[in-house]
Amino acid sequence: MESLKIKSYNNLKKIVLLVLFTGSLFGQVPEELPGKEILQAALFSDYDIALIDSLLLETKYRSPLYETASYLIEDAEKKEIPSVVLSTEVLKERLEKINTKTPFNIGYSPVLERVIKSYLKYRKRYYPALMAKAAYYFPMFEKYLDQYDIPLEMKYLAIVESALNPTAKSGVGATGLWQFMYPTGVQYKLKVSSYVDERQDPVRATIAACAYLSDLYTIFGDWDLALAAYNSGPGNVAKAIKRSGGYRNYWNIRPFLPKETASYVPAFYATMYLFEYQTAHDLVPEAPQIRFFETDTIQIKQTVSFDQVSEKTAISSALIQFLNPSYKLGIIPFVAGKDYTIRLPRKNSFTFIENEMAIYELAREDAAKREKPLPKYFEMDKRIRYTVRNGDFLGKIANKFGVRVRDIKRWNRMKTTRLKIGQRLSIYPRKF
Q: Residues 232-243: pLDDT tens digits?
């Protein structure tokens, strides 16, 4: 156990350093620093906590898209409960049954009742398709959650984060099933290149999410608090504990959490409830197109596109895209030292193997006909800080580093193309 604490300490210390070197992306150090006594094993100093504060909060939610957060409860306590056939007493009984078999504190509250009934009234029609996606992803989630000794119910977190869309991207760049920002993804070994975004890789991103959740649990010793910290950062949760007078129960510290986190955890509970009691609410899942255990991976020996694979195997490009969401351009690159694979339905794997040489030959023929070569492979593993000089404009800077203007705007949360001399820009260059 001690070694686990040290490992988690080191991992999250790295996040501190990350924040130090990306200060413009995150909040400022608050004047009031939370006390380290509230943290398990005193893993952080007061200063550490302040610096760790809110990777997601500052970048993901404090943006023009903030109010579009799908789970945000705007003035939930002031709204009337939607008219849904579900009595408070029945709901209390059901929540108590869930509570007895999970490590989460999912007892009844008026706020949670409002969220559940709101979902039943306004979002019920979306759940059959969502449950079909869950049939594909949940067995894989559960495999890794179990390996990391994380409650299996944490699988519902991916629904709250991304609605189980592996290519989901927020306006400020949080990406994938588990909505990793680029710096956090790097911290948890998710690489991004011109062709591949591992934050969109269901398996790799799930492993990273498990590692992060495990680290958060090591700090707080409570899964509700780990859940809250996944959303707003461990610093905000630590401050909420202190401001509450030292309480460590989510519902007791909820008034002291950021608004988005106060909404986030009830959304997670509500999602868990609807999945647990789907039959009681006539939620009939759609049949999944395929299940994860019905797929297999094959290592690629040459750069190929989804369309080329589809042409020679008769597997639809749409299905290939669904099974391989990490490949951003619909192209699987071959790079020396990298083990890039294609995931296919297991029943079609032999078809690919039988036609592998023909697929590669088609790829070579297409490459010879291509007027413009494919983008050069590069890894976005290093950020540079560029200082705007006299005569600079975004198009000029974009061309210098081989990136797009819209990328520079997104990385720096710019609403216009106007620049100021001396302005510092974060850039992840394609040209070195």
A: 888 899 999 999
